[in-house]
Predict the structure.
Amino acid sequence: MEKYAHDIIIVGAGLAGLRAAIAAAEVGNKLDIAVISKLHPLRSHSVCAQGGTAAVMREKDSYDLHAFDTIKGADYLADQDVVEFFVRRAPREIILTEHLGLPWSRTSDGKLDQRPFGGHTYPRACFAADMTGFHEMHTLYGKATSYNNIKFYDEWFATSIIVENNTAVGLTAIELKTGEMHAFQTKALVMATGGHERIYEFTTFSYTTTGDGMAMAYRAGAPLMDMEFVQFHPTGLIPSGALITEGARGEGGYLINAKGERFMKNYAPEKMELAPRDVVSRAEQTEINEGRGLEGPHGPYIALDLRHLGEERINERLPLIREVAIKLGGVDPAKEPIPIRPAAHYSMGGIKANIKTETPIAGLYAAGECSCLSLHGANRLGTNSTAECLVFGAVAGEEVAKHALSNSLKELSKEKLLAEEKRVFDEILGSEGGERVPVIRDEMRHVMNEKVWIFRRGDQLESALKEIRALKERFKHIKVQDKGGPFNTGLVDALQLDFMLELAEVTIVSALQRTEFRGAHSRVDYPKRDDINWLKHTLAYYTKEGPRLEYIPVTITKWQPAARTY
Amino acid sequence: MSVGVEKIVEFRINRFDPQTGRHYVSTYKVPVRKGTSILEALQYIRDNLDETLSFRHSCRMGICGSCGINVNGQPMLACYTQVLDLKVDVLELAPLSNMPVIKDLVVDIQPFFDTFKKIKKILIKPEAELNKLVEFVQSPMDLKKYWDLTLCTKCSICYSACPAAIDQRFLGPSTLTANYRFIADSRDEGLDERLKPMADNVWLCTSCNSCTLFCPKLVNCSNAIIDDRSLLVESGVIPRTVKDVLESVIKYHNPMGSHQSKRMDWARGLNVKAFPEVAKADVLYFVCCSAAYDMRNQEMAKAMAALLDKMGISYATLGSEEWCCGDHILRLGEKGLFEELAEHNIGLFKKFNAEKIVVLSPHCYNSFKNDKPYADAGLNVQHYTQFLAEAIDKGKLKTSKTINKRVTYHDPCFLGKRNNIYDTPRQILQSIKGLELVEMKRTRQNSFCCGGGAGRVWTEEAVPEKRPCVERLKEALALDVEVIATACPFCVTTLEDAVKVLDVEGKIVVKDILELLMDAV
């Protein structure tokens, strides 16, 4: 095992990771920064973010309004100090990326344009057509690669975080090109590895968003917070699940059921299609469950109708989703409605971190979707996630830089490195059982889809938990067919599945305990929000027997929980 | 709930085992449904048939750029290509070209990303302006000027298909386009800095158009590179070789460095007429500078005249008034000079009421068809292969002699990739008795450029092994052919250069189709 050392290591090179690297590099050009990612940075899932990035840019809008929208959208589970800090920092990020060259869409007088989005009471989504995340990524990558003190380890798969005395001191990673594992020493570590939605069958997410960082941090002793809250996006394209931006409704698109009705009038008469995602997804699922879905070759669906926007506006504001709908769904949105249904889209939960992105483990930070601060509470508003990646990616970069400047490198214990080698190469790659990774993976995804979907029930969750635990057992008896070193994607699949099974278990256990109906967590057996018992965050700690749960209070600054209607 | 299987498609996948260094092919049968993408087929193989197959993928919606591969010789994104759309029962999959293979379909993308390190990918502006926390103003119209160029996902497909990229000095289509994207951004003030990294290598682009043809996001890299060059030409920072070509055109109206009065020397002793010496002719024969002045290529000019005579067609050239069509000049970035040449030629076409123009060079053909102001002049133009294929078809031209030779055909980019003329040249070759036509691995739309386009035929300064013509000729040599035929004077020049470089004069001959036809009639 070769050893590498850097002052700061950032795992993950999506929006949060790149933003953190830039912020750290800005603190000092003497800091030696490494970005480790299992993908080339530009292949990160952040490039799939479409609709926009929320920020208060105009006088008619206000920080309080953005904060309140976010908190109400969160069904009052967000930590309000975090929200208040966030809304104040977001505009700076828009300007910064604009100054780097991001091609933001413009108003006729040349200013940054903003579009409406679900749950926001002011059109505050800055956007670059419907490729916002793509352009943010390419812009930040352009900036990040301009520093001499940021070293990129592209296509290095991190496998574990090494913690000594409750302090993160390094990690192990496999260089995919050679298949060899190496050890990294560091003074400060940022996890920016994204969500875990590939635990589901029908998801908007890239194949590579498997929650590795969450699982690594969890195993290293950091608690995962609010993992029961998984967002289902109302418009996943059928059959692939590819994202059709909420911006399509922001631009005026309709949701139609089999009776030809804009059914949102029955669920959110005021906001209609632009209610928050939990509300719209529940409405769609209800329409489908009650037999008002349209019938297609892939099962019942809802129609997203953009035809009345006209071809010109679609081309100007939504060019990517038109292309994607044609290429992947075989429908041209300018001519026919797009078949969609809710798809697993975002994890409100993640590695517990505070307003400075610090986790309970010293030297370990988390930013972006893999973290939970909690900015989004029980339900995230569209366009707040890219904004979060920028704002808290920057915070993480500034904070790790400070930490790295006042700390020194620590030795990595040999036993831990050997144990990780044994786990990866002997127990996983060397396993000679009869189970197959793709089979276990598909069964896991099926269980999550059937029993841990939008509407949840205690008995189903219990049954799902049993099944996932049985799959975890079966995983011990897998066989990876490819025994080679270089670019062994069979091994990568196995490592990712191992992580996903862990996270599926945490998601279910957290969901089972929370006996209320809040935000994206819709317990049909407990159909009311319960502020008396459940206005609190779930913390899940790793134990060999499965997650141990604890709860901590929600930070309320000035918005008391109130009824949530749209 | 599911969609029925439409057919079973055979996937032949070119693989590489890095541990043994073995290249081999694995064959799989994949059930394909309506909507199945190549990526989904690959996943089917890995999940059900062979877990050891390695390929990259991530977003499956054409935006992350991970899954570029060669499918039946053409680079494309696996996720953005539906199997049924390809309308074949067998697919050959291979890793992208121009980059070393790591394993199976996975290539090392580092050489591609290294090119981006040479340019600045953020706005260049005075520090004081960048530090102000206010947005810069940019009108939607100004945004539109570069927006399309921002859509590049850096999938490396263009780089893989690029003939110039075999020389690592070349920044490649994607990077040169990214550079122009910033130049064209109204907010940017870094023109001088941005010209530097490309000044010595942008000239390697041959305008073959492969980058643009295969780009999954339809980014017009080929045009962006011409725009890059225009700015360099304007700034005057251009290599001596390019300067020489442009100066020759300014001075003589041709890039061959020879006086216009000698333009008709090739026809000495032949009965070739010119306007206005003849007042009217059915065909205006536009010769091309290379065929008129280059000793070797004069054979083509003569052959065409002889064939026209043989068919008894009334034709005339523009004589010494024919100016360079300007294609190479436009693509070297001298747009003003191109327009001057075009206006002159259009003026003559009008003056002599040219009802049908037949050209020798695909470059003249493309310019007359597609480049303004020619394109707006409504010219009735045919490449000679079209004209002669028609004549053969109608029995006006008969190929009576037998040529017992094994021949391969090299598609000129300006005929094929830019104008979709693939069949007519082959029809002519197949009309010759005894001639056995065999195809190179890269053919038709996937053809590999000879390296002569966009002025490079005159400005070539790459070391021999980095010249596209050499790589191309090796492909022909692998077929054991006696003749590599083509239909373009510039391809003839570059391929003959390759014959000399590889020292294979006894093994293979470069012939234009016109010459083969002359031997056959």
